[in-house]
Specification:
single chain; 213 residues; alpha/beta; Rossmann fold
Length: 213
């Protein structure tokens, strides 16, 4: 029985919006921005610091310095161990997502959840993509404050997400073998949700939810 669905998405493909619709249809909890708030509370830091590490690697010079302190100068005091960085962020993400997998009934957006939980029974993994013109149109219309070349921003964001997955999970973010279902968002949210519910074998759950309402 599927108890959890993860959603990876290309930037601009509206994968997060689809996840919202899916969670609403199933009556499950959506794990997206609320995860950042929970990590901020647990780590005792401001949410904006958590957001800066969300699906991101630390700058190369920071990683170089950290490796230098922990490698070459092990006997000397290093950087503040309480500093919140991407490594600490991922530690929290892993712990919380494993806990959510145990609880079940949730839809998780990004954060490498598909890679972390790819062997967990009851977890169903989805990847959402879209054509570049469609993604550019969506970003331009929804976020007009974004200046510059939107296509460059989209490609850079996807490269950043791929690097994050490669660094922390040693996996290829776009490897189709990770996912149970890959969908082009041009089909629309209703069709996407319907396809997911059918593929995950959750039609009886949705029917029960509708009856209960």
């Amino acid at each position: 029985m599927i108890r959890m669905i993860t959603v990876e998405r290309e930037y601009g493909s509206q994968g997060a919006a689809y996840a919202h619709h899916l969670a609403s249809r199933l009556g499950w909890k959506l794990i997206d921005d609320c995860l950042l708030e929970e990590i901020a509370s647990r780590a005792g830091v401001q949410k904006h610091l958590v957001a800066q590490c969300d699906e991101r690697l630390d700058p190369w010079y920071y990683r170089f310095g950290k490796a230098f302190w922990h490698g070459s100068l092990e006997r000397l005091p290093g950087p503040d161990s309480d500093t919140f960085d991407s490594d600490r962020m991922v530690d929290h993400v892993r712990e919380l997502l494993r806990a959510r997998a145990e609880e079940g009934q949730c839809v998780v957006v990004g954060r490498g959840a598909a890679c972390l939980l790819h062997n967990v029974p009851g977890a169903f993994h989805v990847f959402v993509y879209a054509s570049m013109p469609r993604k550019v149109k969506y970003i331009t219309e929804q976020f007009p404050e974004h200046a510059g070349d939107v296509e460059v921003e989209i490609l850079a964001t996807d490269r950043r997400r791929a690097a994050y997955i490669r660094r922390y999970y040693d996996m290829d973010w776009t490897d189709r073998r990770i996912y149970h279902l890959m969908m082009n968002s041009c089909m629309g949210f209703e069709a996407m949700v319907g396809a997911t519910v059918e593929a995950a074998g959750l039609t009886s759950l949705v029917a029960t939810e509708r009856t209960a309402r």
